[in-house]
Amino acid sequence: MGKRRILGIDIGTTATKVIIIDEEGTILGDTQRTSTLLSKQATWAEEDPNQWWENVCTCIPKILSETNTKAGDICSIGVSGMVPTLILLDEKGKVLRNSIQQNDARSSAEIEVFKKGLDEQDIFRRTGSMITQQSIGPKLLWLKQHEPDVFAQAKTVLGSYDYINYKLTGKLFVEKNWALESGLYDLTTKTWIQEVAAISGICMEMLPEVKDSSEMVGSISEQAAKETGLQQGTMVIAGSADHVSSAFSAGIREPGDLLVKLGGAGDILLSLDELKLNPKLFMDYHLKPGQYLLNGCMASSGSLIKWFQQEFSEHLDYRELDEQAAKIDAGSDGLWVLPYFIGEKTPIFDPLARGVFWGVTLQHTRPHFFKAILEGISFGFLHHVKVIQEMGQSITRVRVTNGGAKSFLWKQVTSDVLGLPLEIVENHPGSSMGVAFMAGLRAGVFSSWDDIERCITIKTVIQPNMENHRIYEQMFAVYTELYEVNKALFHKVNG
Q1: Eight-state DSSP code of residue 308
Q2: Is the pLDDT of residue 141 over 60?
Q3: How many Å separate Cα 233 from the centre of its chain?
Q4: For burial by CB atoms within 10 Å, which of 65, 112, 272, 433 has the most?
Q5: Residue 1: pLDDT band by 50, 70, 90 thresholds?
Q6: What's the average model confidence in pLDDT over 415-433?
Q7: Residues of the chain with CATH 3.30.420.40
Q8: Does residue 290 register a pLDDT over 60?
Q9: pTM of the model
Q10: Rounded to an integer, what distance in angstroms lies between the CA atom of residue 360 and that of residue 367?
């Protein structure tokens, strides 16, 4: 019998990624295909779930061929994805419209309807989250009010990776982290909340059964085998939210472990061994049973850097921008940036907030602006760390992943602002590795959750410059005040 192999799939915002790992946790190959973010209006964020499935059906045969893997060699499959993405299916399981993404901010009016119609503190205690732009309920209400013909055909509500699992197995369900982050699920009773569903405009039958992350939910169907090249009957597990899986695959598994994700959006996740809620943050189930992840998500992070490079520095690559901005002293000579360019999620939960450059003078140059952007994003991470510390939670180890980890300056600025050493995870494959490992654990390929460490490489640790940190501590006080004094104006202009 040949060595067993595991397939991991990630449905990401910018690409669909597929990896194959072996019994040692070694990545034998990876491939990806671009996904298209659709934004018809300023606050909208949508994608086409059919494109995700087409990507999966293209990537799987490609990676099987490139790794010389037979379909029968794959013993288990795990899927991760964006959360809580909203997808509507009709009675035949057909996608009714584009997905509404987690960072979509169209439902601000509906959020107010929810806040008036429900006891928000009670909802927070029951779901672990406040009513925000990420909540599924207000988005459902928006669809009912603005697209009634589409909404009337809806029979099932589910998320990104749940949809791909449905296409693979023919089984309808949602994984527990989608349920939890939806704002529709009671984490104590582990049931859907009827009054939240009612104000959302849906019946309870539209909400599928909730599954644990590592639970086997089905196997590759005959139709999926034809479309993907996989073997019919291959085990499929429920999978995971991408940020949860990504955190685990970076080794965030012990209480006090913190992950900073320098991605298109900025995520920060703290591992806990008991449930502790904070209205300024989100709560997720850890992949490891009995543990949790306290987490925050900044709507704009690397996407802001990309915007600046494309619109104002197109002739310079990121390395050149780094080199120029590294010559600028900490504090960018009195230039601050509020990074709320598409509103903000945690910790302020304000979809009407907007980006600000403040303190601009004629002496400021492009490198000043670039460094100030990095500092502003890092202040956003520090804001989360302050919230965590105010809860009495200790941070024992910080690891950094995602594309921004390739930028020497972004990493150093982040370390200086936080005042903490950063362990850089080398060549981190992200959430596809986390769900692949979990699928392998379910299949008996791995014996312990701790085996994930053999899949992780740490070569670099960034040490903070504490003199810079003291400067940033003073600047952070101005950063938070800038938002507070502009909050009313944001709401007046954008409300």
Answers
A1: H
A2: yes
A3: 30
A4: 433
A5: very low
A6: 94
A7: 5-243, 251-427+465-495
A8: yes
A9: 0.89
A10: 13
